[in-house]
Structure formats: structure tokens, C-alpha cells
Design a protein that fits this description.
Layout (H helix, E strand, L loop, with lengths): L2 H8 L3 H20 L8 H38 L31
Helix pairs in contact: 1-3, 2-3
């Protein structure tokens, strides 16, 4: 995935959508009503939108970095010849004991 796709995907979060709406509504109301003489009334809406932008960018950057690391690791593992043994390799595995005798349990059962 590209960084832009990850950025759009990070904005699918419900909380971020609510904050985007709140920031846009705050800016729209400030522009429409004039804020009653208040000079810096637009700051609240802009701060909300800036916070959403920071969260979305950081989330997308983290996801992008994780995806790159995963690609590198999968290329490395596909290049290596990885084989697993067909049997357990623990030296003290009870199933591999000679004779495989049954052990009586405390209740008299086998």
C-alpha cells in the first residue's frame, strides 16, 4: 500500500471522523456568525483539525514502516531454505522414552 492509501485508511476511524466534523463545524460557525467580535475564535476549530492531521499522519507513518519491515522480512524468509524436523526435538520428551509405558494416575485410572 502507498502512504496515501494508508493515510486515507487511518481516517476511517470513527473518533477521527467525529473530530473532523467538530473542527469543520466550529470553523463554519465561526465564519458564519463572526464570533461576536472575538478575534481568535477560529483557533479552536483549527486546533482540532491540526490534532486530527497529526494523529492520521503518525498512524499512517507507523503502518507504512511496519509494512516495509514485513516486506523485508518476508523476502528474507522466502530466500532462506527453512525446514522443520518431522518429530519433536526436545531431549526430555516423555513420548520419546524407550518403552512408552503407561503411568498410573493418583485416582487409580490409567
Amino acid at each position: 500500500m502507498t502512504f496515501g492509501e494508508l493515510l486515507v485508511r487511518s481516517l476511517d476511524d470513527f473518533t477521527l471522523r467525529v473530530l473532523l466534523g467538530a473542527g469543520a463545524l466550529s470553523l463554519a460557525l465561526q465564519a458564519a456568525l463572526g464570533g461576536g467580535g472575538e478575534a481568535g475564535g477560529w483557533v479552536e476549530g483549527a486546533a482540532i483539525l491540526a490534532a486530527v492531521a497529526v494523529v492520521a499522519l503518525v498512524t499512517a507513518a507507523n503502518d507504512f514502516q511496519k509494512e516495509q519491515q514485513f516486506r523485508a522480512l518476508s523476502e528474507l524468509s522466502s530466500a532462506a531454505d527453512v525446514r522443520t524436523p518431522p518429530y519433536p526435538t526436545q531431549p526430555h520428551d516423555p513420548a520419546r522414552r524407550a518403552g512408552r509405558r503407561r503411568v498410573r494416575r493418583a485416582g487409580g485410572g490409567v
